[in-house]
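Chapter review: from sequence to fold.
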Amino acid sequence: MSRDITTICPHCGAEHTRTTALVERGHPGPEPRMGPGDYTLCFSCGEFATMGATGMLRRPTHSEMRAINRDKRAVAAREGWQQLHATRQ
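The token string follows.
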């Protein structure tokens, strides 16, 4: 389930009014909500950001970025964004 929250992408400055967690297809139960340490993909620039302790987005640390790059859900999300972005240009 997505939730209403206003955040600013730390990469491009885009304002987002909704966030949602990445989950596996067929994930049982309700969709988990984002919390500190979770990451999201900016629909404007295609970069990942991490939710900080204050509920605002920040740039991922180097170790967080390595984990994101190993996460098959994140890789699929970025590839989908790249394909969509390419068709819009």
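Two observations follow directly from the output. The chain has a mean pLDDT of 85. The chain is about 30% helix and 20% strand.
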